[in-house]
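The instructor's notes for this session suggest beginning with a concrete chain rather than abstract definitions. Hand out the sequence below and ask the class to guess, before any prediction is shown, which regions might be ordered.
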Amino acid sequence: MAIVVNLDVMLAKRKMRSKELAAAIGLSEQNVSLLKSGKVKGMRFETLEKICAVLDCQPGDILEYRPDLPAAGEGAA
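After discussion, reveal the predicted structure:
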């Protein structure tokens, strides 16, 4: 299972910098950077709600599920 974070895409669409988002939602720039890179294991719904409010978007605009691709050698026989 893979959850992809598309926060960088939404920031670009809204022409907003990470620094501005961080200030608006009360997180450090470093934590926003970690969110953007997908290097976090979880996110509070409260944080997701704040991001969606500032970026005027839905959670599905930020988070995407992409099933794992089969490993090499697996798949069609």
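Then share the key points. DSSP finds five helices and two strands in the chain. Residues 25 and 53 are 9 Å apart (CA to CA).
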